[in-house]
Write a structure and sequence with these properties.
CATH topology of the largest domain: Creatine Amidinohydrolase
CATH architecture of the largest domain: Alpha-Beta Complex
Largest sheet: 6 strands, mixed
CATH superfamily of the largest domain: Creatinase/methionine aminopeptidase superfamily
Number of strands: 17
Structural class: alpha+beta
CATH class of the largest domain: Alpha Beta
Number of helices: 11
Strand content: 15-25%
Length: about 450
């Protein structure tokens, strides 16, 4: 009976949210238009910035480099056979040359550059393409610190280097910073669609944290989690991680970092007086959201959340302001973390900051700004600088003592934001008031 009710609820909620979601053909057109703009306007600048004039990216089917998946046309679900892409910047303001050393052209973006009948060996064909263009620096995706920049397999790396002459082998360098730049930089067209993703996420959270979904005393946190999964699938968007819904309440249980981030109980019945928290993200148009918000379940006779909780939410909002106020182009993630924590502590806030880049991946490429278990910062990943036109999940929490509960709780917030090089703007605003769920 419960499954039937959930399905009916999905159908009743669908029209409002579904209006934001494009059909598959329309999505493909958007994805391909975005990709075209990125190749024309984003990538040339990044290749100049990193001083790499040739980028070689390759993947075998179902063992895709994280970068190559962001370069394939909308109708390609994965690499085919052994897909080798070559991007060459001839300089002097000329357009990039994009070649596919493969059995097929890769959509309209990469021109076929291998005739197997004329040259049976794909590696030899790749070496010939490189020799004909004589690049000064050949970037490949190998990186010790950044997984998203380490997409070339060890087998491919060995065979690639073996195929090159000594002259060009000596010109091979890591494309680590180029790969990060490609993944982290958002285009103008992407940012016209990103608000739609954030709005869909917020709409789903606001519905889940209402009496449409929650009946205090009956509904469990796991019921709400699976409602998110069902609703996402019904809308035609994906979840890049399994959602979580957790509870803080007026009991003797203390906040536990490990439990909060990895071992939340599922079958926890939602009761009047509970503070609910959700962590939820969707994937749509190859972009991702990551959002955390709170709801308060009113006790009979209550019309608003306790004052202590309201003040706690305001404190976490202030921590958001402190953090985003320290965003500065060229400043490292570790420096942003240090400055923000110092400022927050001076203001009497007990901060925990674990903000990450957002884009083609949920935990995306770019500077790491703290982790919940590494508030002192991270080597290498935290040392990476902040660039303009990048997106972030502003993820953090602050601890506050709640007099009404005689205990300390955490307000854990996460909202999607865009940094244009000068300031930070939330892609679809942020939570400043609790969702309120009635118990009457």
């Amino acid at each position: 009976m419960r499954n039937i009710l959930i399905f009916i609820l999905i159908l009743t909620c669908l029209p409002t949210s579904a209006a934001e979601v494009l059909g598959m053909k329309e999505r493909a057109e958007v994805i391909d238009n975005i990709l075209k703009q990125r190749f024309e306007e984003v990538l040339p600048n990044l290749m100049r910035r990193t001083n790499i004039d040739m980028w070689v990216i390759m993947s075998r089917e179902y063992n895709e480099d994280p970068v190559i998946k962001t370069m394939l046309p909308s109708t390609w679900i994965s690499a085919r056979r052994h897909t080798m892409l070559v991007i060459f910047n001839p300089g002097e303001g000329k357009p990039l040359e994009k070649l596919a050393v493969a059995r097929y052209a890769v959509g309209d973006s990469f021109k076929k550059a291998w005739d197997k009948d004329a040259q049976p060996n794909q590696w030899t064909a790749l070496a010939k393409v490189i020799e004909e263009r004589a690049p000064k620096r050949i970037g490949i995706n190998v990186s010790e610190a950044f997984a998203l920049s380490d997409g070339m397999s060890s087998t491919e790396n060995d065979k690639f280097l073996a195929a090159l002459s000594d002259k060009f082998r000596s010109r091979v360098v890591s494309a680590e910073k180029l790969a990060i730049g490609w993944l982290e930089t958002r285009s103008n067209l992407e940012m016209t669609y990103y608000p739609t993703l954030a709005k869909i996420g917020h709409k789903l959270i606001s519905t889940a944290f209402s009496n449409e979904v929650v009946t205090p005393g009956e509904t469990t946190t796991d019921d709400v989690v699976w409602w998110f999964r069902d609703q996402s699938k019904a809308l035609g968007v994906e979840n890049w991680f399994h959602p979580t819904v957790s509870i803080q309440r007026a009991d003797n249980e203390k906040f536990d970092q490990i439990k909060a981030f990895s071992k939340r109980p599922g079958e926890n019945i939602i009761q009047p007086g509970d503070l609910l928290h959700v962590d939820f993200g969707i994937t749509y148009l190859r972009l991702n959201t990551d959002q955390q918000q709170h709801a308060y379940v009113l006790k009979p006779g209550e019309v608003e959340a306790p004052v202590g909780l309201v003040k706690a939410l305001a404190t976490s909002n202030r921590l958001q302001d402190i953090l985003t106020g320290n965003f500065k182009q060229g400043r490292s993630g570790n420096e942003i973390l240090r400055l923000s924590r110092e400022q927050a502590i001076k203001e009497g806030i007990k901060p925990s900051i674990y903000t990450h880049p957002l884009g083609f991946h949920g935990h995306a490429a770019g500077p790491t700004i703290g982790m919940w278990d590494a508030q002192e910062g991270l080597p290498v990943k935290g040392d990476y600088p902040m660039y303009a036109n990048t997106a972030y999940s502003i993820e953090l929490n602050s601890a506050s003592y709640i007099p009404e509960w005689d205990k300390e709780i955490r307000i854990m917030l996460e909202e999607d934001a865009f940094f244009n090089g000068d300031n930070v703007s939330y892609i679809d605003d942020r939570q400043k008031e609790f969702y309120l769920i009635s118990s009457n």
